[in-house]
Every structure is written in C-alpha cells, then in structure tokens.
C-alpha cells in the first residue's frame, strides 16, 4: 500500500509537503537561539513514515524537501539532525540513496539518519521516556496503524517540540464503528472517548459526524498537553472531505506561525478569512459553496466577549483566535472598522502617533458595556 501511495503525486500531496517544509523552516529559526540551552546545540526533524523520498514521477517528497530547506540555510545546516524511519526496507534503501545524491548534502554538519523499524508500542515507549532536543515531527501513515495519542504526546512533551500528523478521516470514520479495529481507535482517541464517540456518531449526518470526530480528537490531544490544535482539511474535486493534516503544539508562537502557513495554502477565503482547507472544487466550482461573512461574525463575537473590558490587540488575538480561523490581520481589520464606526475606543499606551490605516499589537481597545 505504501508503495502505491508514492506512485504518483497529486496536488494535495504538493500542498501537504509545502505546509510541512514551510513550517519546518519557520520553526527552526524560532528555536535556533535556544538550542544551546535546550538541545545541546542541535535541533531535530523526525519523520517516522518517510517513504522512498520521491514519487514515481521523480518529484521529491517531504524528506528531501525538508533537507533542501536545511541545506539552503547555513544556520540550520549547522545544527539539524534529521531522523527518518520507514517500515519498508526497500523504502529506506531508496531514501538513503536519494539523500546521498542530494546536491549540497555535505553542508549538513550531522548526516541524516535512516532507520527501518515498525512504529509500535516500543516506539511509543521510546518517545515517552526520552528527553528530546527541540524537534519537529511529521507523522504520515498511509492509514492509522501506529498513530496514537501516546506517540504524539511523546514527540511534543519537551520544549520546542511540535508535531504535524496525517489524519485519514475516511478510514477513521469507518473504523470508529468497526469492532475489528477497536484497539486502533482506542489508541487514537483513548478507550473511553472512542467508545462514547462510536455511540454518538451512529445515525449522525456526515457534516456533523466530521465535527464530532475532530472535536473529540482535539479534546484528547489537549488533555495530554497539546494545548494548540489546528486541523487543515483536504477535499476531493467534488468537495467531499478525504483527510486532514493536524498540527499540535504547546506554544502559541508555533500555532500562530502554522495558522499563517495553512491560511496561505487554503484554496478559498471569504472576507479575507481562510477556509483552512484545500479542494480543487473551490477553484473549479466556486458556486458549490454558500457565501459567508465571517468578519461580521467576528465583530459580533468580540462585542459580546469583551463587553466592558479593555484589552490590547495582541491579547485579544492570543486569547480569542485559538480554535477559530481568524488571523492577526483579520482582528486588526475588524477592530479598525469598529474604531472608525465609534463602536470601540482605542489608545496607544506608548503615546506614539499612529500611521493612517495601521493597528499595532500594543494598542489598547476598550469595548462598551453590553446593553441590558
């Protein structure tokens, strides 16, 4: 199955790889200043389902793209330790050969390591007990075997450690009601949550079923310490959901960066608010989807949540944006419009003159009290 997966590269694979390599580069530059204190002068990129390195058409897959990013940066190439794994020996041999032939690979101070091991209970235990250097981990199983809460928790538990994993929604959606894969669902959601979810999703409409499954996944991840969870949806050319790319972090800084990256990879937006989804149908059949006015919704939420309060723009963004599709620029646009309409008052605690059309993070926004 894995071999078939790498036979040809679809546009969704391109988007997925773009998200991962962009975040890797941004994450590396964020954690670099603290590598001596937390990582012994090293950072790691970990891919436990690495594959052969290239698709059948010759296009590079994620491992080679990440290494290319590292080679391009003298600072990253000096500290990066790349750890690749695949269960298929043919894949690991091919990947090693591709890495060896990568132009500029000698610029990496630490040669990439390629292993051939199953992703199983032993892997869970290793990451649970081992203190990791700052690491960005990518988990992309073809289905869901080996993917577990314990594994994700193991790779994000230490400082500077973030994870992105492939969530095969179609297969997991079927698996929740299948007693043959009960153990796999328990590993992914927790036994009690998986059993409860199975009972709840029966006879539920598909759209609501997706929301239930994602909500429970996010809750399970947050309970174990992954306080910031961000899913990106992939849909087929008919607009139907196929899978997700799920980001998990303990840091708002990482969450903010990944949000910007996923927003830019989205195939549509309304009022400047990204869909956090990619689908060819968004481009070829835009009238399939209802019109929305998400910035209007944001203004209403801010009026209600912050009634009678004074908060800085940055505090509002950090507190309110988690679990919502809005970026910093969306908040600034809405708050500026509210200021122009006299719906809020704004002052600069630094007492500086404001440039026309700007809305700095430090600005204090006072919301009127709610009408009784």
TrEMBL record:
<feature type="domain" description="FHA">
    <location>
        <begin position="305"/>
        <end position="365"/>
    </location>
</feature>
<dbReference type="InterPro" id="IPR054339">
    <property type="entry name" value="GMT_wHTH"/>
</dbReference>
<dbReference type="Pfam" id="PF22560">
    <property type="entry name" value="GMT-wHTH"/>
</dbReference>
<protein>
    <submittedName>
        <fullName>Three-Cys-motif partner protein</fullName>
    </submittedName>
</protein>
<dbReference type="InterPro" id="IPR000253">
    <property type="entry name" value="FHA_dom"/>
</dbReference>
<dbReference type="InterPro" id="IPR031009">
    <property type="entry name" value="Tcm_partner"/>
</dbReference>
